Amino acid sequence: MENEKQMLNASVAPENFDWDAFESSSDIYGQSDKAEIEAAYDKTLARIDGGETKEGEVISINKREVVVSVGGKSEGVIMATEFRYNPDLKVGDKVEVLVESPEDKKGQIVLSHKKARALKSWDRVNEAYENDEVVKGFVKTRTKGGMIVDVFGIEAFLPGSQIDIKPIRDYDQFVGQNIDFKIVKINNEYRNVVVSHKALLEAEQEARRAELIGKLEKGQVLEGVVKNITNYGVFVDLGGVDGLIHITDLSWGRVNHPEEIVSLDEKIKVVVLDFNEQQKRIALGLKQLTPHPWDNLDANL
Hints:
Elements: H1 2-8, H2 19-24, H3 31-43, E1 53-61, E2 65-69, E3 76-79, E4 94-101, E5 110-112, H4 113-130, E6 134-143, E7 146-151, E8 154-159, E9 178-187, E10 192-196, H5 198-215, E11 221-229, E12 233-237, E13 242-246, E14 267-276, E15 281-285
Parallel strand pairs: 13-15
Antiparallel strand pairs: 1-2, 1-4, 2-3, 4-5, 6-7, 6-9, 7-8, 9-10, 11-12, 11-14, 12-13, 14-15
């Protein structure tokens, strides 16, 4: 009788609830009811086996961890460093994960996003290479001759000559950065991948160069920044497009080296002397913006 009162308590109105029966026992369900409820609950959960790749949903994010649900009895915790290539990750995003174990000692699912990416990485790398796609990579560290970049979970090599179109003074500034790249070489036999950031910059520069040259006129005065200094002249960045001031066009006087006249990163005004649309060269002058010394001579001389 007492057990029947406890069972009925589960569905009665609040005013008819038997608190004495409730407090006298911590179990208001019979064993058969428990079994039915547990079976019904298990049916709502996805079956998860170790070693399979699944799509999960990001539940929460903090500086150290990302919690991902794959529809199991518990969520999995993944180190935030596995998502450092994606700084825009947010709650609700879908991510691929590898189920390393359905349950650990704490009852949590053991997941890995990095390993899930690695399983499909070579297919993705080859696809991006064939389609000439732009990929995002995380610059992990500096190494001899260049940088190591994480692309789809693969460690790719970024040669120092392929980082930028201008000379690099500080390679360490790129470490820890997410940058766009193009895959320029793959060796599937040795699992080597070479990427280039310079290739993207050159394509952008080519488009800007064509646009700028289409608007150029001889005698036009432009402002630029000194980008590089050589023995024979100075390269000036005109806003993504380079022009050259030959050493003879730097000054009306004798110049032993261009560094006597300009310095790196200096903003200067230049005049367009000539340009060639086919060869895409722009000749600039600096001395032409000042009067020729002979113009200041007395006319009677």
